[in-house]
């Protein structure tokens, strides 16, 4: 029996995937590294360090410079997220959260981002969640199941009682590895392994998932 819903943040509740992209793009331009929107698809749901490695694409860079680059990207990102308001909730996200809450489900965010808390605060949905897990919560990032398992535990639920909503391939893999029901948001190529798939959050059909 399903008792809780665990939401990814970036690309599910709000389109920060775009802001992450613009921040990496700015860094890449400064460094003369080619980086396209298409390249960015691989970075969805991936940790900051892994994202940098993907962007560097085999270029050798000393550790100190890597730290500086991650820091620079994060500073650009922090500037972008200052502007976030409740208008930046993706269509259907607030309605879905309210509906689930009124039906009595436990709700959580499980994001790999160390910036998740300020983003949720700016979106004005902090109070809706029983648990907010972020980039500080566990060591091993998605596709490892750790963040979702930790979140379920904090909610007092078993993995099989949880539904995960994710836009990233790494996130779907993590949800499946955790033994949870996986709902993918996005194209088949990216989230096709999920139990259910929708193009957009607004398309989610709760009755299908809960049946
Ligand atoms: C999420 C996003 C990724 C981001 C990661 C780390 O998973 O989907 O694009 O790289 O969080 O975010 P952070 O804010 O800690 O750099
Ligand atoms: Mg995401």
UniProtKB/TrEMBL annotation:
- Name the residues that bind Mg(2+): 8, 10, 166-167
What is this protein called in UniProt? Beta-phosphoglucomutase
Q: Which PANTHER family match?
A: 6-PHOSPHOGLUCONATE PHOSPHATASE, HEXITOL PHOSPHATASE B
- Binding residues for substrate: 8-10, 24, 43-48, 51, 73, 111-115, 142
Keyword Metal-binding tagged: yes
The cofactor required is:
Mg(2+)
Chain positions of site Important for catalytic activity and assists the phosphoryl transfer reaction to Asp8 by balancing charge and orienting the reacting groups: 111, 142
Q: Which organism is it from?
A: Halothermothrix orenii (strain H 168 / OCM 544 / DSM 9562)
Question: Which family, according to the similarity comment?
Answer: Belongs to the HAD-like hydrolase superfamily. CbbY/CbbZ/Gph/YieH family.
Protein's UniProt keywords contain Isomerase: yes
Which reaction(s) are listed as its catalytic activity? beta-D-glucose 1-phosphate = beta-D-glucose 6-phosphate
């Amino acid at each position: 029996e399903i008792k809780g819903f665990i939401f990814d943040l970036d690309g599910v509740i709000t389109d920060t995937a775009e802001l992450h992209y613009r921040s990496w793009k700015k860094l890449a331009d400064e460094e003369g590294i080619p980086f396209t929107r298409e390249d960015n698809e691989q970075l969805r749901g991936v940790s900051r360090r892994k994202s940098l490695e993907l962007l560097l694409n085999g270029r050798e860079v000393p550790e100190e410079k890597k730290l500086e680059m991650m820091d620079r990207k994060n500073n650009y990102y922090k500037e972008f997220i200052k502007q976030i308001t409740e208008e930046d909730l993706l269509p259907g996200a607030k309605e879905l959260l309210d509906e689930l809450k009124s039906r009595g489900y436990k709700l959580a965010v499980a994001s790999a981002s160390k910036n998740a808390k300020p983003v949720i605060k700016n979106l004005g949905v902090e109070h809706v969640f029983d648990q907010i897990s972020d980039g500080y919560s566990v060591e091993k990032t998605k596709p490892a199941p750790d963040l979702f398992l930790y979140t379920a535990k904090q909610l007092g639920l078993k993995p099989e009682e949880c539904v995960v909503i994710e836009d990233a391939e790494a996130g779907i893999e993590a949800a499946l590895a955790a033994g949870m029901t996986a709902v993918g948001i996005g194209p088949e190529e990216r989230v096709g392994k999920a139990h259910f798939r929708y193009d957009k959050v607004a398309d989610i059909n709760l009755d299908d998932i809960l049946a």
